[in-house]
Amino acid sequence: MRQTVDTENETKTKDSKETPGSENKKSYCKLSQYSPGLSILKKAILLQCIVYISLPVILCLFPWILGQVVFSHWLRIPYLVDLASPAELSLNHTLNFYLSPEEGISLGVWHTVPDSQWEKAQGAGPEWYSETLGDGSPVIIYLHGNVGSRAINHRVELVKILSAAGYHVLSLDYRGYGDSSGEPSEVGLTSDALYLYQWVKTRSRTSQICLWGHSLGTGVATNAAVKIQEQAMELARERARDLRDVTQANLEPSYAVDGVILEAPYTNMEEEVASHPLSVMYQCLPGFESVLHHVMRSNNMVFANDENLKTLTTRILFLHAEDDNVVPFYMGQKLYQIALQARRQQYAEDQVHMVSYSGSLGYSHNYIYLDPNLASVVGRFLQSKNNNIDRPIVRKN
């Protein structure tokens, strides 16, 4: 009995003589059971940090990547659609043809005539379609946004609405888009729009010609409109020198574009890219704005709607949905104010109009064509060339 008690005391004595760090070692052993999970978490966080920091570096080294993302012309949706056969998309009064603005570049274009000419269009050839451009009906040159071709559903549906309203619509696929050849760039897209405008102008006689830009296409539209205006002013000056009794003001309206419609417009491409959710994540990163500016300039990509509207003198209609998830609504509002301010100096505020759509309608970025009154809004705008309409047009319901 005594021997047993002595043994127990000896064991307690040995335990009391263990090293001071023994308890820590035991705790470490317990924590080590969870170390694999902690290690994976640390690796995941480290990987995220590497990706976060490396993306701006990659864009600096390879700025062309951002250009590919902005244009997204390589996403040739919808797939399995024959662009040479618009009738497959229920555009039975539409001619598909190609223009060549420069050597090595071919542009795919659809010419949809007004619905009222549907029967005459059946079996008609290019000459008949070309002749109809001078029938007095307004002509709308549609400049779409990035991604896909002129066959994307919301673009086709808009063409149908405009045709039903009595307008000619020419839908252009810029170089690199759809079945058009070449690679996109700001200069290239603007040149394509200018070439189509001049092609239409030589055939339209006295018909109005309006540029309609959507998203990316708004930058193309204002770029082209400013170029057309500059050409008109130069031509007016030359003619004014030859005709002493004709002023420059009498000549310019005959050559400038008759109107510009901007659907979901952005201020400029750099601000638009900066407003993207992915870019917002980097706003707190020191030097990110400089990196973005460098990358945009390396791509020669500006699309400065804000600057263009300061000098543009033609009529302008803004269409923007409050729930636009691609181009923030505030950009459309800002552009409207810029255009309005420029017109105040010219006493021509009635030439700038805006329609805004409540977020409850769900039109977002691509579905303004669903507005049942869209044809009426466009009709009033086009008629304002001779008859002023109230400013601004605002729809909130």
TrEMBL record:
Task: List keywords of the entry alphabetically.
Answer: Membrane, Transmembrane, Transmembrane helix
Spans annotated as Disordered: 1-26
Q: Which Pfam families match?
A: Abhydrolase_1 (PF00561)
Looking at the record, the residues that make up the AB hydrolase-1 domain are 138-228
User: Where exactly are the transmembrane stretches of this chain?
Assistant: 45-66
**Spans of biased composition, class Basic and acidic residues?**
9-26
| GO annotation, biological process | monoacylglycerol catabolic process; phosphatidylserine catabolic process
Q: Which InterPro entries does this chain map to?
A: AB_hydrolase_1, AB_hydrolase_fold
What are the GO MF terms of this UniProt record? Answer: monoacylglycerol lipase activity; phosphatidylcholine lysophospholipase activity
GO CC annotations, alphabetized: endoplasmic reticulum membrane
Q: Which domain of life is it from?
A: Eukaryota
| Name of the protein | AB hydrolase-1 domain-containing protein
Query: Which organism's genome codes for this protein?
Result: Oncorhynchus tshawytscha
